[in-house]
Amino acid sequence: MIERIAALRAEAEAAVAAAGTSAELEQLRVRYLGRKAELPNVLRGIAQLEPAQRGPTGKAANQARQALDALIAARGEQLAGGELEQRLRADVVDVTLPGRPPQPVGHLHLLTATRREIEDVFLGLGFRIAEGPEVETVYYNFDALNHAPTHPARDRLDTFYVEGAGDVVLRTHTSPMQIRAMEAQPPPLYVIVPGRVYRRDSDATHTPQFHQIEGLAVDEDITLADLKGTLLAFARAIFGPDREVRLRPHFFPFTEPSVEVDVSCFMEHSARPPQRCRVCKDTGWVEILGSGMVDPNVFGYVAEHGYDAERVQGFAFGMGIERIAMLKHGVPDLRLLYDNDARFLEQFG
Ligand code: PHE
Fold this sequence. Notes:
Number of helices: 11
Structural class: alpha+beta
CATH architecture of the largest domain: 2-Layer Sandwich
Number of strands: 9
Helix content: 25-40%
CATH class of the largest domain: Alpha Beta
Strand order of the largest sheet: 1-4-5-9-8-7-6
Shape: elongated
CATH superfamily of the largest domain: Bira Bifunctional Protein, Domain 2
Number of domains: 2
Largest sheet: 7 strands, mixed
Low-confidence stretches: none
Bound molecules: phenylalanine
Distance between the termini: 84 Å
Mean pLDDT: 92
């Protein structure tokens, strides 16, 4: 009996090693270990053997069964691995092929398109693009921008503070990048900074998160005339070649003097029905951004980076991308930009 078991085991082992597919292997498992197979039958019949033979026979049969079990499992894994490989190879899809039928690719969101359009204008004027952190320290967002310790914008009612992080805020404007850009590079510096900003505001004309583009130029002999000329070129590129700009006095802690910049209204006024122009309210001017000459106090914060207020001057400006997009395309409600209504978005393909 023990020889028979050894012979069976050898035969089964050879067959398993030679099995070429999982299906073949399964057939072998049934043949050698299934309910009607010889080896399990030997095990079931142990009780009928001579008492002296029961021990050695049972042991041999058990060992043979365990060895075969393990062998089949191992061979099974091998075969499955190879078969998976084969299936994967047979199923390769060239994902770079066009769809059938080709799907339309969609288009940029109005805000993205507007941001890029504005970037293009300033790239053409010799500015480069920089980006910075949206989670910002109070130092960059307020202190180094010459905000007095009591400035109202610092209020927790206006600014999102990051809890448990000390003096950390969600930046309320892109202006902190003025400081970071100057720290990173000595003058001359011509940079614009697009990005998200955050304020605790929410109504028809304000969302808690919106987008700005900051501009900063620092060089020798920069004057307010350079600011005006630059913004005139910008306004004409975005709103049409016949636009004019005007500067109105204003206040920002980090520019002196500070100005608000208006562009002449670009709506057709002559053939209008007798109601007021919805863009300029018949004033002829539309406010587009805040700006000014860099306050010498601001240069004081970056003096060790080569910014000597006696030697260089600069202008800075900051505009809301939403506002530019809405003005240019006559979008009546800010929230349309965030609703993801395809009927709205598809108008700006
Ligand atoms: N950071 C200002 C704001 O968000 C705009 C601004 C930028 C003003 C640069 C002057 C210079 O209102």
